[in-house]
Amino acid sequence: MPHTNKKAVVLLSGGLDSTTLLAMAHRDGFATYCLSFDYGQRHNAELAAAKRVAQAMGAAEHRIATIDLRAFGGSALTDASIEVPTDGVQSGEIPVTYVPARNTIMLSYALAWAEVLGAHDIFIGVNAVDYSGYPDCRPEYISAYEMMANLATRAGVEGEELKIRTPLIHLSKADIVKAGIALGVDYGLTVSCYQADLEGRACGVCDACRLRRAGFEAAGVADPTRYR
Amino acid sequence: MPHTNKKAVVLLSGGLDSTTLLAMAHRDGFATYCLSFDYGQRHNAELAAAKRVAQAMGAAEHRIATIDLRAFGGSALTDASIEVPTDGVQSGEIPVTYVPARNTIMLSYALAWAEVLGAHDIFIGVNAVDYSGYPDCRPEYISAYEMMANLATRAGVEGEELKIRTPLIHLSKADIVKAGIALGVDYGLTVSCYQADLEGRACGVCDACRLRRAGFEAAGVADPTRYR
Question: Which of B196, B223, B228 is nearest to B84 (CA)?
């Protein structure tokens, strides 16, 4: 566990990317306040993974906020009537697994917690390489969010700048895996699959599984994922 | 009920300001999708008022989203250990009734719903005159939010601009009341008090009550508020 008074809120899904992100926040000397969301996702094994990861990696605190994105529908990840695609990632399109305004909502909860904690750093594991089809994973979106956040809060008013930190944004999946391995991450704790079963075993065919598997391959690292 | 296909999401608390806002959205020809929040506010009579208002004014739909801001604490409106001030509005300070990131979180839910509805307009009743101490009621905050929102969503990617509409932002409370009366608003339906009782009767001494009462007086309109 890092010894520091510098607090950061870390958005932690329990997947490969956000777990690497948490390791990076610790490397950078932050005491981490991990925030996960129960947003009616099909792959609830994620939350169990987030708990394991936060505990194993020595987070200062871990909270799970319940948000009801199902009420609005519109994504294969929260709407049971839309099928999770298993036929590979299409480039240049917004995927049906895109959840409307998800990152905006999650960052906004992180912003509220950061303000109460007196934290000036929020870590989010967005990636513009693999998720180029998601509008809210782009660097220009993150910059705009940061600018807004600095106007939204006491911190901004009092002149202490709030930073949205996205150390994964330009990394390939293989580079994320390599960085995590170098920081001692145990990827066996993590779950990335969009439709993992209750024990956290992955389907192996959804977009998230394909990207993850290819990442381990390209990094030359044995894939610790449990497939069903 | 307005006859139109132009949809707008309207953030509706059930208070004086947001009820006037809803009347303005109808005046502007929008079919309105009203969104209220159960955020653990002490004054839950607000939500009953929001339901009455949405129904009486012919909203196309009204949804209440539950968000757990109590988990983070930090405001007299959600944290029972902080007292609601009753000794008048202090200028130049951020009041203890400020809820961290509240407008940011609420706008983000509105953004998600707007995206699913295909709506390009979000109405929020922020006011920079009476709530000058709240960072997230300032015009520069709203502009920054709008810029971010246009980068966050499919609409932005597809070139259809999303607008955050704040017709109350520069109006005095008296001008808001006058505008609402001209549009036929029945303010007897609304509840503004920070600590209304279960029947929606107002305390008369909190900041919200003081501002509201002064507004009716300055507008020369009989105050229909039920005080306890």
Answer: B196
